[in-house]
Automatic annotation (TrEMBL):
Species per Swiss-Prot/TrEMBL record: Fonsecaea pedrosoi CBS 271.37
Protein's name in the database: Vacuolar aspartyl aminopeptidase Lap4
GO terms of molecular function: metalloaminopeptidase activity; zinc ion binding
Family: Belongs to the peptidase M18 family.
UniProtKB keywords: Aminopeptidase, Hydrolase, Metal-binding, Metalloprotease, Protease, Zinc
SUPFAM superfamilies: Aminopeptidase/glucanase lid domain, Zn-dependent exopeptidases
Origin organism lineage: Eukaryota, Fungi, Dikarya, Ascomycota, Pezizomycotina
NCBIfam families: PRK02813.1 (NF002759)
An example Gene Ontology CC term for this record: fungal-type vacuole
InterPro entries: Peptidase_M18, Peptidase_M18_dom2
Amino acid sequence: MVRKTSSGFFSSIQEDMPFRISRGYDQILQHTAYPPCTLPLNPQKEKFSPERYTQPYIDFMTENPTIFHAVDYFVEKLNQDGYVYLSEREQWKIKPGGKYYTKRNNSAFIAFAVGKDYKPGNGVGIVAGHIDALTAKVKPIPKLQTKAGYVQLGVAPYAGGMNMTWWDRDLGIGGKVLVKTDNGTIEERLVKLDWPIARIPTLAPHFGAASQGPFNPETNMVPIIGLDNSDLSGKELPSLKLPAGTFVARQPERLVRAIAGKMGITDYTSIVNWELELFDVQPAQLGGLDKEFIFAGRIDDKLCCFAAIEGLLASPDDASPGIIKMVGCFDDEEVGSFLRQGARSNFMPSTISRICEALNDYDCGPNLINQTLANSFLVSSDVIHAVNPNFLYAYLENHSPRLNVGVAVSADPNGHMTTDSASTALLSRIAEKCGSTLQVFQIRNDSRSGGTIGPMTSSRLGCRAIDCGIPQLSMHSIRATTGSLDPGLGVQLYKGFFDYYEEVDAEFTD
């Protein structure tokens, strides 16, 4: 049952509608005080098995722990499906029926498929999210003085990274490395040291008040990465004798050796810079008595990006042939999206503008671009707080999404979400057509709302938009939880959006 919110966002939603869950679970018992909230659903019109996306998602999460690895994974999937790379530094050649992608900083990308019947001025169906996650980033000069025999690594928290859940975890390190080749060019290469290298040790409770905090992230949360007791033995450790003034001379020698060895680099000075982060090396895995859960790190928001890309790739070319289908995965959302690869940048507006120009023989003015945007729709997709059974009082009654049920629409009367009544009605019609269940989330009046890229992106584009996402527990923890069916349920809805947007949009008057 769903009740209308005070903002009126869901005034068209019927109450007392039964909710369904995909096969594999016989029954969900409804909590009397906090029943799930779902939008009305017609009988499923098409066969869809969310289970087939469970293991691919688990493998993706384990194998791609950094943002650069995740983007590289998605780009490779696009390449395999026939998508053509378009460099922002070159002129674009685009035609109806073509599939393309572009990227920035190798940490954000936009993929799009132009319908074979596309005409200039037609709309763009967009699913967008962020691919960055809370982490700890290696400082520019992370080489620290050995303390009490411990070799430590200078890192800085990214957004809310290095919170209390990062203590006593097995941490690997990875990211991108800039390497100077023999011909003098600079290449970006990926590296992943996915065994336990670093650890942030807690202070045992036996030490009393000092072990209880508060803790200083600059002095109390410095990872240990090795031992050096040469001050006791009088024997100096072997040195790489790195030339002064080079980038690697300012880095911990053992880290330089480990990364160079992993990458097959023999000339250490060819490493001109790097961008590295820490990550929990524990693999993503199924959990629960019947394997109903996925336990993993970095679920926020690689989960929705995974579902969006899989939905785009699964959408047949002859579905919504008169529009452009687009997925945008941005960086820097967790710190405000202000950088050039973030959602506040010109990345998406510029991409859409260049598409319009290329499809109209570069005879394209503001009128055509604005017409395109007016016919477009943005699904801002970021993970949603699933209801936590130990803290039911923290959730708004009838607005508490459950795992393994479906994507949740997120509303906020103060503009932190871009959802409104019209966008909810449109996505509800799409959910009916593709057999998805929509849940609803809104915070209590006495809680603080988070934010998404939805408001900033929709306001820059001027298109209609909605905020929705896949539910998860323990958001911003180093280890979080979602349902084992939830990646596939996300794919089902986003595929449905690409399949049916053109048809459903025609039902709505201006």
